[in-house]
Amino acid sequence: MAFSVAIAGASGNVGGELLRLVAEHPQLELKTVTASSMVGQKVSSLHPHVPVYADMVFSENTAAELAGHDIVFLALPHSKSAEVAEWLSADSLVIDCGADFRLESEADWKKFYGGEHAGTWTYGMPELLIGGAQKQRELLKGTKRIAVPGCNVTAITIALAPGLAAGLIEPDDIVSILSAGTSGAGRGATEHLFEIEPTGSANAYQVGGIHRHTPEIEQNLSKSAGERIQISFTPILVSMERGILAVNTAKLKPGATLELAHKVWAEAYADEQFIKVYPKGEFPSTADTIGENNALIGLAVDEHADRLVAVCAIDNLVKGTGGAAIQSMNIALGLPESTGLTAISLAKNGAKK
User: Fold this and answer.
1) Whose CB has fewer CB within 10 Å in the chain, the N or C terminal residue?
2) What is the mean pLDDT of residues 251-259?
3) How far from each other are the two terminal CA atoms of the chain, in whole angstroms?
4) The domain containing residue 309 runs over which residues?
5) Which of 21, 56, 72, 151 is labelled catalytic?
6) Percentage of the chain surpassing pLDDT 90?
């Protein structure tokens, strides 16, 4: 059986990645791609890396264009997804790659995003530990509305959740410094960056606890810990196209060791096809994740500071967004979770958006 698919906002970075992933999925049939400023243009004008859809034309983002599809992916700016979601039938599986439906707290939404809180959809991080050995995966089965996590959120959450769930690290002294590729900033921001900065530049941004992903990270990790956590999160934009490297540290609880940490992380993710915990002394690189739906983790203990160090690498456009959307979609539809995600690697050099 083929499921009919529409991608709203297919002209952007996330939309282009969804095109690539949909093309690899044996049970998806792309019918409609919408855009705003690119209406009437061919897909090949922006996404030549997906030749199978080269002659498709971006149509206007309207209720009529999106109606009648089995699956609708929303790759739209913040607040726009909530508007478009109101057009769509309750029978369609709708997957939002933006932030509109991720947060459970209305107060957090108003503080970090502003405007009215649209509500909360089923959260699309299957591996998230949400109490004991339970994971978010079970809540995705049969759902019709999915909120895909933020890419920074994914790298930090996956890196730290096992330690909080097992009580190995303190919940109130967590620091994450995260280096992110330019594609995570959106097409317009990416182009602007390279107008004003030479290649090789790195820039901290949204410094001082104001990044919009902060409450989402805390929401996730609080579920894993079973208590309120706080994080200090500083993102750095670096001049690579794809990838996130999150270096996370937390104060160790008495008796916690590197050996115990490795055991806890390995057991937490033992059955996860898309998460790999590296052996002691080994750490991941963003180059190891390009085009793949994988999260790679390396662990260390800073004995001088008595802190755990958890390093996580992902491709922000795959495990951080598009791959997470497909993975969660598969679960919701009752398909094998890895369908369409096992042979999607890009060449390590010259990877496209």
Assistant:
1) N
2) 96
3) 29
4) 152-314
5) 151
6) 85
Domains identified in the chain, total number: 2
**193 and 79 co-located in one domain:** no
The pLDDT of residue 267 is: 97
Among 121, 112, 153, smallest CA distance to 140 is for 121
pLDDT above 80: residue 220 = yes
pLDDT of residue 241 exceeding 70, the answer is yes
* Structure confidence by residue, pLDDT tens digits, 260-279: 999 999 999 999 999 999 99
Q: What is the DSSP string of 60-116?
A: E--HHHHTT-SEEEE---TTHHHHHHTTS-TTSEEEE-SSTTT-S-HHHHHHHT-S-
> Is residue 312 annotated as part of the catalytic site, yes or no?
no
- Judge if 123 and 170 occupy the same domain: no
DSSP of 188-211: HHHHHHHHHS-TT-EEE-STTTT-
Q: Report the percentage of the chain scoring pLDDT > 70.
A: 93
How far apart are alpha carbons 262 and 299 in whole angstroms? 7
* pLDDT digits 0-9 by tens, 155-167: 999 999 999 999 9
246: three-class secondary structure by DSSP? strand
Residues 126, 156, single domain; the answer is: no
Answer whether 106's CB lies under 8 Å from 82's CB: no
Q: pTM of this prediction?
A: 0.94
Mean pLDDT, the chain, integer? 92
Per DSSP, the chain holds a count of helices (H) and strands (E) of 10, 14
* Token pair listed for 25: 């999925």
Q: Give the residue ranges of DSSP H helices in the chain.
A: 13-24, 63-66, 80-85, 106-112, 137-140, 151-165, 187-196, 214-225, 258-268, 323-333
Count the Cβ atoms, other than its own, within 10 Å of residue 348: 10
Closest by CA position to 8, among listed 59, 53, 55:
59
- Radius of gyration over every alpha carbon of the chain, rounded to an integer in angstroms: 19
Residue 84 in any domain: the answer is yes
Query: What span, in angstroms and rounded, lies between the C-alpha atoms of 215 and 230?
Result: 9
Q: Which residues lie closer than 8 Å to 320 by C-beta, 6 or more apart?
A: 149, 150, 151, 152, 154, 155, 184, 244, 314
